[in-house]
Amino acid sequence: MPELPEVEYVARQLRRELIGRTIVAADVSWPGAISGPCPQDFRTRVSGQQVTDVCRRAKLLLIALAAGEVLVIHRRMTGNLIFVPGGGEPPYARVRFTLDDGRVLAFTDPRKFGRLMLVAVADLPQALGGLGPEPLDDAFTAPVLAARLASRKRILKAALLDQAVIAGVGNIYADEALFRAGIHPLRTAASLTPQEVAALREGIRGALLTGIEHGGTTFGRHRDVFDTAGTNLDHLKVYRRTGQPCVRCGSAIARIVVAQRGTHYCPRCQPAPSPSAG
DNA sequence: CTATAAACCTGCTGGC
DNA sequence: TGCCAGCAGGTTTATA
Questions:
Q1: Span CA (A242) to C1' (B14), Å
Q2: A108-139 pLDDT per residue, tens
Q3: What is the DSSP string of A157-208?
Q4: Of the residues A18, A141, A177, A182, which has the fewest C-beta atoms closer than 10 A?
């Protein structure tokens, strides 16, 4: 999935559509999608519950239920939450929630990587423990980011992908953030100057906000709850633009592999680290 | 601690 | 047109 912008966009939609509604039934057609409790208990504990709140943490969707439990959903690579039009069966539906207004919200997921779980409110801090700061919070300042990176003798891009360092950034927005900041992905996390950290903070937030604004990035599976694709692909500057001209300087965008992930950058706007300095 | 590879799954794209 | 290799928004686990 879906990274922070794709989850945030859907969370905002679900907030409008679900709060106050009651889930009258839950049907699980792929038990592997439920990571806890067992599918049987999952079904009975969700059924009859009114939705009291919807929010997002990192790449997780949190749907609070009246009984004091929270439905936690991670879409991973190809998971979507889509309102089923006309009561039909959408492709790759793994879990279906029927609402008291007759609508059906389906969790679809071709690759079966996505997971849903039910967690007691009291256990939520434990379940979400280990996640880094939210990059769109006011508290995510340059000094905070600097502190997260300072002790890390680690490749910068790998650090950005680590959810314990910063929550919600994935492969697309890591590349976009680094381009915006003019920093090479192979730099060492701890080698950034304060100025570079400040630029990176702006780059991260700018890339994420642009993504949310355009309904997320769709080049494959991401859809919103009404099955509509996001348009942010048209606004990406380096991701998936290998060989195409840099929007700033015209150089060909390069692609390398970092931490097993395709990584895109401009060789001129994001100068390579010196062998010694990292 | 950091890094790397593999595993979990299925579908799509590009090259030959 | 057809087949195959490679790639894909993420995370976890095993292994150096």
A1: 15
A2: 999 999 999 999 999 999 999 899 999 999 99
A3: HHHHH-TTTSSS--HHHHHHHHHHHT--TTSBGGG--HHHHHHHHHHHHHHH
A4: A141
Residues pairing with A28 in the sheet: A95
Question: How many other C-beta atoms can be found within 10 angstroms of the C-beta atom of residue A263?
Answer: 23
Q: Which residues touch strand C (CB under 7 A)?
A: A 1-3, 6, 58-59, 74, 76-78, 111, 113, 161, 163, 170-172, 216-222, 230, 260-262
Rounded to the nearest 5 degrees, what angle is found at the Cα of A40, between the Cα atoms of A34 and A43? 75
Model confidence pTM above 0.85: yes
The 10 Å CB-count burial string (b at 16+, else e) for A164-175 is: ebbbbbbbbbbb
Summarize pLDDT for A7-16 with one digit per residue, the tens: 999 999 999 9
Structure tokens given for A55? 């929010």
pLDDT tens digit string along A80-97? 999 998 878 899 999 999
**Which positions of chain B lie under 7 Å from any protein Cβ?**
1-6, 8-12
Is residue A118 within 8 A of residue A50, CB to CB? The reply is: no
Q: Token pair of A225, please? A: 């709850």
What is the Rg, in whole angstroms, of the alpha carbon atoms belonging to chain A?
20
Separation of A35 CA and C3 C1' (Å)? 37
